[in-house]
Amino acid sequence: MKSEIIVIGDELLIGQVIDTNSKWMASELNKQGWEVTRITTISDGGDDIKEAISSAFSRVDVVLMTGGLGPTSDDVTKPVLCNYFGGKMIFDQSVYEQNMRYFAGRGLQMNESTRRQAEVPDVCTVIPNPVGTAPIMWFEQGTKVLVAMPGVPHEMRVAMKGDVLHRLRRHYGDHDAILHRTLMVFRNTESGLSERLADFEQELPSCVKLAYLPIPGVVRLRLTARGDDEALLLKILDEMVEKLHTILREDIFCDEDTTLAGALGNILKQKGLTVATAESCTGGNIAHEITAIAGSSAYFNGSVIAYSNNVKQRVLGVPEEMLAQYGAVSRPVVEAMVAGVMQLAGTTCAIATSGIAGPDGGTSEKPVGTVWIAVGIGNKIISECAHFAGSRTYIIERATQRALMMLIDLLLSHH
């Protein structure tokens, strides 16, 4: 089944808020075997909403919409949908009572604006919203279905997981499967990898496609299988993954779709190792990426944000004369930071960074974007000087990803 997503909100179009809803929705729909063919972001204007719905319905039978269901005057989605589907607004007592309970449970008093949340089009089926006041609305027009959900990510996700996906599967009786397997590959460029896999691609079964998804230093290979026999698809994917391992061997460092921090965590757990970070220019971002992974407490001991030379010296034990001779952004200093944080945190591995993220602070010798990175396992420490171009945020992100990749590479080559 094919579907489209419409995301509503002026705040999205001016860059004030980042749209995370459509990414999550597309992922969940794909798990159900549903293909998302288009994602559209539009303003809160009534004409734009109507036009987007008509356009989507000309291509697909299912449209999922988020946003514009709040109690304020700029939230016009509900009356626009009422008009589009040819209904009239009514007061839904069950929605009102649920919202009363919602407010009472939080010790709040309902005002008139929130009371109007119980007004819904009489041509929709109301789906209760257990974590908010905006009702989820299900509209049908012939074979077409539109589901309108709140733009608040938590409310939308509860609605999707709790009721919407089940209703869609029951309504259409659609049980086709879309299955993915993702492998993470390093030490290869995208073009070089495609040449190595040319014969493999030609021999793929018709139900399987291969996609190349590059990020700096890494190429993710995604195998996608489509069909109505899930057990057969799983068997085929297992065979294709085995063939890829035979071809690429140690260049595959992860067998799942995760972040570099997630891949690092898997390796550390498998080897029974622990890690800590000592960060200057990355300001704790490496530690943030690592601890964003559930279960990271099994291998991550802690971090020192050694932004000043004073902290590098007093906490991590970097010698004062080393800082004076080489400067903070140097090979000797980051290697000393790695050794210092391993001893301080009692870990077997460590990562350290020191650089100039900008936009100021660069020199002709060490321009903005210069970052020294060191990683270590026990007494084995390696380091490199990287040069990144871009904004401060981009430099920090690139340094973070490079540091994680360096430790992954060291772990796989050292053990």
Question: Could you describe the 3D structure shown?
Answer:
With 415 residues, the protein is an alpha/beta fold. It has three domains: 2-172, Molybdenum Cofactor Biosythetic Enzyme, Chain A (3-Layer(aba) Sandwich), CATH 3.40.980.10; 182-254, Alpha-Beta Plaits, CATH 3.30.70; 260-414, Alpha-Beta Complex (Maf protein). The chain contains 16 helices and 17 strands. It has helices spanning 10-13, 21-31, 46-57, 77-84, 93-104, 112-115, 153-172, 190-196, 198-202, 230-248, 260-271, 285-291, 309-314, 320-326, 331-345, 392-414; strands at residues 2-8, 35-42, 62-66, 89-91, 119-121, 124-127, 136-141, 144-149, 177-186, 208-215, 218-227, 252-254, 275-279, 300-305, 349-355, 370-377, 380-387. A six-stranded mixed sheet has the order 2-1-3-8-7-6, with helices on both faces. It has a five-stranded mixed sheet with strand order 14-13-15-16-17, with helices on both faces. Helix 3 crosses helix 4, helix 11 (260-271) crosses helix 12 (285-291) and helix 11 (260-271) packs parallel to helix 16 (392-414). The two termini are 46 Å apart. The mean pLDDT is 94.
